[in-house]
Design goal:
single chain, 82% helix, 192 residues, mainly alpha
Amino acid sequence: IYASAAFLDSAKCFRYADTAIELSSTIQYNLGKAGAFRNKGFAYYRTGNLDTAIQLLNDAEALYELEEDTESLIDLYINRSKLEKEIHPYLSKKYLNKAIRLASNLEHHDALASAYHQVGLWYERQEKYSDALNYFYKSLRYQKEQYSKSLGYIYCAIGRIHNVYLDDNEKTESYYLKALDIFESIGSWNDK
């Protein structure tokens, strides 16, 4: 509970995470400690302390590996890639590739959809639009299984590539309309 509550705000995070680390250490619960390191790391990232953030995320990764918690590693790698994208773009892609490899082994379709979407965004930032589209389409293949806002975001990303970079108005409109349909049927697109 303390590890999850750490996401409330950065100011409270450090106290909650330290309590979670202490309690988890007392009862020898490595996964609780790993979650607290993860949350505290992202809080440090939000406050601009990148060196401490990266060290804590490395500590979380080591504990998840020790406990063989593949699901948590996948989640950590996808979120770590978002942190690294502005600092070390190639490390960002490295973490996404790790997430894809683990998610493929588990046939974890939601994680694959998320990781492929993030790789598409990575390629888009590198101005490699055909590669970006390739990964957006891979994400779409897995995301179609669930009619969700994430599916709408993927349709938006594909539409954006066709609109901004490929100047294909017909495909742009098609994908944006699909996204709009999803957002209208599910609710506000600002709610993830």
